[in-house]
Each structure stands twice: as structure tokens, then as C-alpha cells.
């Protein structure tokens, strides 16, 4: 089976959780999977990988700069193997137009246009925020019309069935590619 690398950037941990979920699904399909937190990993795509799924979250209207740098550095390699992008944001929980705009800007900034893109809703992790960030995020939620403003709890918006389908579709695509290369 394939050796798949999942390099990702995360600020509050939801993208890391999604990355690990994808890795578990792919392992369940017999693939060897390596997750790389780009905050703490080398910024070169590991040699010998057969496929890659890049994960990035949105903060302050942008994907992490270090993820953009990773993609720019490895763009040629990413274009020569099956690869995909998943973007995690609160926008994906009700403002898909904005979530799609973030991905379009990412593609323009990096020059990479992955063949598969997934938009996943993130999380409001009020209990993990400091006081100031908790109040800012509550204000943002209120301004967007959300009722999720109880700062004594967290709100997880990620649709895990959608994450599973994305990972399974990616795995199925790898199987089709292997069949085609054997013809």
C-alpha cells in the first residue's frame, strides 16, 4: 500500500485532531501514514512518500504562514504525487463562500492547485482560550448570529462523517491510480 504523509498546521488543535482522524481512516485501509506538525517538523516533504494530504487552519483570515511556506517549498513534489488539501475554519460552518475564498487565496499565494480540496468546520474552544481571546471569539460568534456564546463550554463543528468520506475517497483514488499505472 501507499506511504502517505499528512503535513498540517494548527493553532488550537482541531486541525491536528482532524489530521489524526484522517490518518486512522487511511491506516484502516492498509496504508502507512505519517502526520507532521509543521510547527515542529522539517519543511521538506519526506522522501519516499507516495501521496500527501496538507491540512491548514484559518486564523485572522489566512492559513498559517508556515503551511504556505511548506507548500511553496514542496509544490513540485506535491504536483507529482496524489495530493490534497483540507482547510479548517469556522467559516466552513455557515459561510462556505468565505471558506472557499480562503482556499482560493491559498492556491494563489502558493501556486499549488490540489486535485482534491475539503473544507471542514473547526471548533470554538472557549475553555482553552485565555480571557481576552474568549471574549473576542464570543463577540465574533455573536456578530455572526451564532447562539454558541456560552463561554463555559466548547463547540465542535467538525462533521466527522465528512472527514471520513474525504479520507476514504482519497484512499479510493490511490487504488485507482495504482490500477491505471499497472495497465
UniProtKB/TrEMBL annotation:
GO terms for biological process: heme biosynthetic process. One of its GO terms (molecular function) is FMN binding. Pfam families: Flavodoxin_5. SUPFAM superfamilies: Flavoproteins. Residues 4-171 form the Flavodoxin-like domain. This is Protoporphyrinogen oxidase. It comes from Arthrobacter nitrophenolicus.
Amino acid at each position: 500500500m501507499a506511504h502517505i504523509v499528512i503535513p498540517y498546521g494548527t493553532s488550537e488543535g482541531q486541525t491536528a485532531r482532524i489530521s489524526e482522524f484522517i490518518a486512522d481512516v487511511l491506516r484502516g485501509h492498509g496504508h502507512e501514514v505519517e502526520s507532521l506538525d509543521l510547527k515542529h517538523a522539517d519543511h521538506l516533504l519526506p522522501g519516499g512518500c507516495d501521496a500527501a494530504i496538507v491540512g491548514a487552519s484559518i486564523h485572522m483570515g489566512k492559513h498559517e504562514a508556515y503551511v504556505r511556506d511548506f507548500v511553496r517549498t514542496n509544490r513540485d513534489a506535491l504536483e507529482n504525487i496524489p495530493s490534497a488539501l483540507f482547510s479548517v475554519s469556522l467559516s466552513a460552518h455557515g459561510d462556505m463562500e468565505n471558506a472557499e475564498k480562503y482556499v482560493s487565496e491559498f492556491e494563489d499565494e502558493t501556486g499549488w492547485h490540489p486535485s482534491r480540496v475539503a473544507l471542514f468546520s473547526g471548533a470554538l474552544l472557549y475553555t482553552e482560550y485565555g480571557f481576552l481571546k474568549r471574549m473576542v471569539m464570543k463577540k465574533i460568534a455573536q456578530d455572526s448570529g451564532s447562539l454558541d456564546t456560552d463561554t463555559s463550554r466548547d463547540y465542535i463543528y467538525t462533521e466527522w462523517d465528512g472527514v471520513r468520506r474525504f479520507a476514504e475517497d482519497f484512499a479510493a483514488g490511490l487504488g485507482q491510480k495504482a490500477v491505471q499505472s499497472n495497465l
